[in-house]
Amino acid sequence: MASKNADKRYTKDHEWVTLDGDIATVGITDHAQEQLGELVFIELPALERVIAASEACAVVESVKAASDVYAPLAGKIVETNDTIVEDPSIVNSDAEGEGWFFRMELDNTDDFEALMDQDAYDEFLESL
Question: How far apart (Å, rounded) are the C-alpha atoms in residues 83 and 21?
Answer without folding.
Answer: 24
